[in-house]
Design brief:
This protein is an alpha/beta fold. It has a single domain, classed as NAD(P)-binding Rossmann-like Domain (Rossmann fold). Helices cover 47% and strands 14% of the residues. It is built from eight helices and seven strands; from the N terminus they run βαβαβαβαβαβαααβ. Strands 3-2-1-4-5-6-7 form a seven-stranded parallel sheet, sandwiched between helices. 46% of the residues are buried.
């Protein structure tokens, strides 16, 4: 990644769900390098403490433990930013995933409901709190981390993931429409395959449900692209920085692919 202007986000406060590792962690570090204060979230307090130590941003970074599938937990992370730093300028709804991979006819209620809460409900709960604060100042930036699978349907046994990522894109457009005149933008980023910690945790089960190895599963994403490789966290973080910067103020309601040309 090119050098980042350390004053680009000076004075701004960002909340990033699922920010202790993977894409969320990359975005957090990029925003910190640009001068922002950051509140990150994750399920494990231990992993959060490790992340803060590795980030080494002093009092410009906070961690709030919680499960974004639980309304009170996801609302608490946004409220912490408001209480601790006095405001929230940027919200990145990054946390989101699924498990219980199966064809629709065998998909369980619990897997469907988990994906709904993890991907869609969490973004709604966090955005509702953040928007209340953003409106008072007439400024805000919301980014929803969607997926290449939110732009198409090219994998079996992940209908719940595909469905709620598509829904997240609709929510993005709705927020952009309602709040654009109040100085608030809302956009989605749709990454392609990236080998994050979450992919390493859930990918093998998804691959097994499709009758392939995990390596073949990863390669299937790479071969679908025009660049014939997986994308990187840094590529997603760079687009996120544009969207929350002054230069990105004219972009709202968009779904920007960082998928190596998969969804051509």
């Amino acid at each position: 990644m090119a050098a980042i202007d350390s004053d680009r986000l000076a004075g701004q406060v960002a909340v990033i769900t699922g920010g202790s590792r993977g894409i969320g962690r990359g975005i957090a570090e990029t925003f910190l390098a640009a001068g922002a204060k950051v509140v990150i979230n994750g399920r494990s307090a231990e992993k959060g403490a490790i992340a803060l130590a590795e980030i080494n941003a002093g009092d410009r970074a906070e961690f709030v433990a919680g499960n974004v599938q639980v309304q009170a937990d996801v609302e608490r992370v946004v409220q912490h930013a408001i209480d601790h730093y006095g405001r929230v300028d940027i919200l990145v709804n990054n946390a989101g995933g699924s498990s219980g991979f199966a064809p629709v006819a065998q998909l369980t209620d619990s897997a469907w409901q988990e994906a709904a809460a993890w991907i869609l409900h969490s973004a709604f709960w966090a955005s509702r709190i953040a928007l209340g604060d953003m409106v008072t100042r007439g400024y805000g930036r919301i980014i929803n981390i969607s997926s290449v699978e939110g732009r198409q349907a090219s994998k079996s046994n992940v209908s719940h993931y595909i469905t709620f990522k598509h829904a997240l894109n609709g929510f993005t457009k709705a927020v952009a429409f309602e709040y654009g005149a109040q100085g608030i933008t809302c956009n989605a980023i749709s990454p392609g395959g990236i080998e994050t910690d979450l992919m390493m945790e859930t990918g093998p089960a998804a691959a097994e449900s499709m009758g392939m190895t995990y390596d073949a599963f990863k390669d299937s994403y790479a071969q679908e692209t025009a660049i014939k490789r997986l994308n990187t966290v840094a590529e997603v973080a760079s687009v996120a920085l544009l969207l929350v910067s002054e230069e990105g103020g004219g972009i709202t309601g968009a779904n920007l692919p960082v998928d190596g040309g998969t969804a051509l």
